[in-house]
TrEMBL record:
GO biological process, one term: ubiquinone biosynthetic process
Residue ranges of every copy of the FAD-binding domain listed in the record: 4-348
Protein name stated in the entry: 2-octaprenyl-3-methyl-6-methoxy-1,4-benzoquinol hydroxylase
Pathway: Cofactor biosynthesis; ubiquinone biosynthesis
Protein source organism: Azotobacter beijerinckii
Keyword Methyltransferase: no
Complex and partners: Component of the Ubi complex metabolon, which regroups five ubiquinone biosynthesis proteins (UbiE, UbiF, UbiG, UbiH and UbiI) and two accessory factors (UbiK and the lipid-binding protein UbiJ).
Amino acid sequence: MHADLIIVGAGMVGSALALALQDSGLDILLLDRGPLEVAPWRPDAPFEPRVSALSAASQRILERLGAWEGIRARRAGPYGEMRVWDGSGTGQIHFAAASVHAELLGHIVENRVVQDALLERLAGSGIGLLPAVGLDGLRRSGDGWLVSLGDGRQLRAPLLVAADGANSTIRHLAGCATREWDYLHHAIVTSVRCAESHRRTAWQRFTDDGPLAFLPLERDGDRHWCSIVWSTTPEQAERLMKLDDAAFAKALGAAFEWRLGAVLEVDPRLCIPLRQRHARRYVEPGLALIGDAAHVIHPLAGQGVNLGFLDAATLAEVLRHAHARGERLAELRVLSRFERRRMPHNLAMMAAMEGFERLFQADPLPLRWLRNAGLKWMDELPAGKALFVRQALGLSGDLPELARA
């Protein structure tokens, strides 16, 4: 089987890339280990533990791909404010979308909801879908790639895109080098119902062990549900995971300083080791890495999938323009245009998240004083806060066409 482009990984980012190249004139194959089936939707369904904080830029991309309607038809938690404070001091800061004349900062959406909305658009799109297949081998063949599947089939294409996640099989088989390190932290993720409304606000407290976020969810108008991302040491995470729901709810409420009152209900918990990873190059001749296959950052600000959607939109733009000019899409000079646009932005975001994480983990008293003073100073600086809000909205920098106003 031959195609112009094979995308490996039909998660949120890989599916977005495929849709962004729909009607481009390219013969596209999108393959994944999963079944690529849209799950039946029930409005009263429990929340999925994995969520994303979708920025305004991501919303625009999803709107133009036709997937946002499917997301809103299910559920999304809009938020217009963010409150951050240092649990070891008095520093705090408040951000509001109104500071840049916007209605919202973003939406907290379950990953499964985003995925299903994208899969709905892929059905009948003309893009070749290969579900429930694993990779058995990968090698260069002439001017392209020979991809061997677990069921014995072989695929050929001049261009291969790895969108298969943090532990990318394609990146490993192609021998792409990475820089990576362990944060020595685990993240506990779940959904909880609180006594008080979240008021469409994203809350984050920096504790001595790591950041704790309460992200607003909504179900049938109920604004008491929050998605939890609790980053802590492996030892503390192990202890918390062993607690029953009542004990965990009490520990969670105390760690959050009861800002939303008592934690009344707790959904099943997941514990995820945190590791940062960045590919030294996003491209090689005939190969491009996007999303988590190219970069994994700390979940501190929920920016991971936003970076991935911008990767997908930018790569699609580069490929469309090159195809219109009759260029060979697999050539390094073409693919490097994508890398030049995305790598600086991704590295800057990763550096910012790393800096925040290290600053708030610092124990020395002078650094504690500095971060508290810095939060207070920034909270009284409207122009600085507005700049941060524009960054969070994803409305600055070299935006692809799909993300522009």
